[in-house]
């Protein structure tokens, strides 16, 4: 059977000409660009951080200025004066203002306790302890989280005042925290914190030692950065590595500090052994994960000093117990 096309279905010369004319016009594309990510400027709020309770117990409350105050728990409250929140990346930065200045050990009254360092020729009318912390800035991002400060401190070896400039004093962990976001404010509460390598030189603690948690609130939107690629080891020991510190599950043991480079966590817990109150310290290899060596037991009044800054001599894993007990190594190679 032969099918004869309907002449009415054929394009006419006028239609063909119109199609060709359109085809020959230079193609112009109108792009509808996606909405640009919003960066919200932060101008008000407050940051609450006690730095470290044991430090305040040793150095005192210090002198606050520039808008800093202390709350009922002894924590410092800094006014937020700037910052930003990036809706695309979740990066949050809050800048504060204000200063805390600690001074102690007035040399004229304690000359028998703190002899001048060899070669020192400066004034002796000084506080051996002299630390100034100013203008904390908190940054939360997928690349890391930290609080930086302007830091000035007397070097205990030379007695010279050293201006360290802006240094990261403590690293922060927001992996297990969700900000509370309302129509007008964003609040981060009790972010775990630990001393950093660059910050401890001015204060004399051990890097990785847990310090007071940090909280802040500001006017504006917020959210958490994406840290889906964070490393979490498998295993059943109940310890997991989270940035600068470690969590224990269940939470009975407390994490003293973590050597991130060597992936070693030091935890402590208290119990009674045959009726004797005892505190144990145990190292864990976070890569395996598994316990390293045998737990180290401390009894008597000394057990209350396990969390003291001097307990860990260095990040090498050496534990230096109080003077009445011998040095102990609990971490393995």
Measured between the Cα atoms of the first and last residue, the distance is 92 Å
Broad shape: globular
- Return the string of H and E elements: HEEHEEEEEEEEEEHEEEEEEEEE
Whole-number total of structural domains: 2
Instruction: Give the biggest beta sheet.
Output: 8 strands, antiparallel, barrel
Count of DSSP H/I helices? 3
| Gyration radius, rounded | 30 Å
Q: What is the overall pLDDT average? A: 74
Strand percentage, roughly? Answer: 35-45%
Structure description:
With 333 residues, the chain is mainly beta. The protein is 8% helix and 44% strand. It has helices at residues 13-24, 53-59, 197-203, and strands at 39-41, 45-49, 63-65, 69-70, 76-86, 92-96, 99-106, 127-141, 144-154, 161-172, 180-181, 185-195, 210-219, 239-242, 245-248, 254-259, 264-273, 276-285, 290-299, 318-319, 328-329.
Features:
single chain, 333 residues, mainly beta, 2 domains, eight-stranded antiparallel beta barrel, 3 helices, disordered C terminus
């Amino acid at each position: 059977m032969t099918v004869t096309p309907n002449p009415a279905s054929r394009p006419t010369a006028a239609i063909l000409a119109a199609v060709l004319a359109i085809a020959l016009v230079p193609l112009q594309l109108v792009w509808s660009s996606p909405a640009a990510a919003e960066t919200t400027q932060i101008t008000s709020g407050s940051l609450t951080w006690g730095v470290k309770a044991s430090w305040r117990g040793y150095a005192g409350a210090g002198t606050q200025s520039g808008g800093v105050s202390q709350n009922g728990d002894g924590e410092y409250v800094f006014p937020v004066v700037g910052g930003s929140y990036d809706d695309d990346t979740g990066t949050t930065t809050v800048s504060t203002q204000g200063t805390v200045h600690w001074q102690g050990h007035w040399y004229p009254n304690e000359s028998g306790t703190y002899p001048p360092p060899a070669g020192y020729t400066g004034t002796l009318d000084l506080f051996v302890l002299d630390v100034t912390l100013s203008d904390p800035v908190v940054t939360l991002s997928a690349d890391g989280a930290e609080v930086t400060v302007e830091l000035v401190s007397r070097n205990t070896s030379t007695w010279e005042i050293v201006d360290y400039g802006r240094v990261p004093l403590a690293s922060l962990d927001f992996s297990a925290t969700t900000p509370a976001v309302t129509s007008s404010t964003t609040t981060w509460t009790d972010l775990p914190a630990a001393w950093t390598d660059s910050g401890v030189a001015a204060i004399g603690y051990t890097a990785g030692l847990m310090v007071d948690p940090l909280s802040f609130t500001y006017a504006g939107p917020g959210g958490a950065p994406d840290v889906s690629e964070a490393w979490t080891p498998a295993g059943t020991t109940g310890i997991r590595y989270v940035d600068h510190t470690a969590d224990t599950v269940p939470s009975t043991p407390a994490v003293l500090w973590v050597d991130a480079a060597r992936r070693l966590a030091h935890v402590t817990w208290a119990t009674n052994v045959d009726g004797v109150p005892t505190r144990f310290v145990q190292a864990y290899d976070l890569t395996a994960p598994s316990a390293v060596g045998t737990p180290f037991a401390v009894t008597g009044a000394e057990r209350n000093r396990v969390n003291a800054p001097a307990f860990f001599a260095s990040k090498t894993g050496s534990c230096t117990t109080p003077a009445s007990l011998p040095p102990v190594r609990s971490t393995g190679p």
